[in-house]
Amino acid sequence: MRRTLAPALVLALMPFVAASPADAGPSTPSVVTPTSGPVTFSFTLPEALNAVVLEIRRTGTTTVVASADLGDLLPGAASATWDARTATGMPVPDGTYVATLRAAGSETPLADTSNVRVNLVAPRATVAPAVSATSVFPWTDGYRDAVTITGPAPVTETGANASIQVLNAAGTVVWSAAGSSARWTGRTSNGSIAPAGTYRVRSRFVDSDGLVGYSPTRALTVSAKRLVTRKMVEKVSPRRYATGVYTGKCGKTFAPARKGKAWKKSVGIASRHKCKGGKYSGLVEAQFGAWWPEAYDVRSLKLEVTGAGHTKSKRNWAIGYSRKKNGTLGKDRRLSHRSGTRTMLSLSAAGARAYLTNRHELYWGVAALEGSRYDIKAFRITITYRTLVDPNARGAHAVPSSVQPVG
Ligand SMILES: [Ca+2]
Prior knowledge:
Blueprint: H1 2-13, E1 23-24, E2 31-32, E3 39-45, E4 49-58, E5 64-73, E6 76-82, E7 95-103, E8 111-112, E9 116-118, E10 130-131, E11 135-136, E12 147-150, E13 161-167, E14 173-178, E15 181-184, E16 197-206, E17 212-214, E18 218-222, E19 226-236, E20 242-247, E21 251-254, E22 267-271, E23 284-291, E24 297-309, E25 319-324, E26 327-328, E27 333-334, E28 340-347, H2 349-356, E29 361-368, E30 373-389, E31 404-405
Parallel strand pairs: 2-9, 11-18
Antiparallel strand pairs: 1-3, 3-6, 4-5, 4-7, 7-8, 7-9, 10-12, 12-15, 13-14, 13-16, 16-17, 16-18, 19-30, 20-23, 21-22, 22-30, 23-29, 23-31, 24-28, 24-30, 25-26, 25-27, 25-29
The protein binds calcium ion.
Residues 137, 139, 141, 143-145 line the site of calcium ion.
């Protein structure tokens, strides 16, 4: 039954089909962008047609987003333009569109044009790139020499080419790098260190049609400061830096030490031989303390004493020791009876960091045991440390403040 019915149905529909379909040429340009201008649909009519309409739909949908009455057309080439806007003048959403040529009163299309892609919206991101630090210190000294910038993904399309840009306060791009993330060493594109100040970073996106969009920007500071190593050498008076003295039953202190004029500001301690008494009765001990201004990073610390023991005594047990407020820092050191300078404490970078970070003070002492004597002329504290210095700032090369007595 179907075999016989099918031809009859085709014949019945024939009167509604246009006499001849039209030929559609290429749509140019094939992509409508903000700078491309409108698209031109071209077609060729085999015969004169009345009241021709051009209807534009998004590919795969039935809703007409725009249409144009082309009127009566003669045979031959004809064309119509579309500015990628709706009937009310609004830009259509990005996507692929097709125009259909139709004679008035006919439900059957004369021709579909080739697809035209509309790309009016540039790629962009709604969030600024993330930065690993809010400041970069470009001077190559190991201190925050670079910052990592991680850009967001574009929200409007995927596959857009991303790059990272750094802009100065005037909005000029001073550095850029391909890719969605980058490591910036605080230098401009020509390799020179960017002047200190506030910069902004952003992601830049370029889609396949060359449309350019950006992410919001994030502030990033470039600092001119450099990490420099400084050395502080301070002569410390034993009388001025004394914090206390312990004198056992057989001990004695002398201020100044019993060594003449050159030892005017010195302190002497002595303990008698063959002391009869309890524990510590043969001990005398002078205690000292100093603090120094907070420095960025102590690299080494040295404490020295200049003095002399009792040259006639073979029982010279004068010792120097050093400690923090709550714990021993170095070992007790036997002080020679010979006149001279001895090291009481010497800390390397690791040792100084371990013990002195956030504690910019030192306590120490000199003790004489039974039968010994020691005259302290002076102490010397040498600290090397690293600190951030702005070479352009006033007083950048000034000598740091000196150490001070504790209390
Ligand atoms: Ca640095």
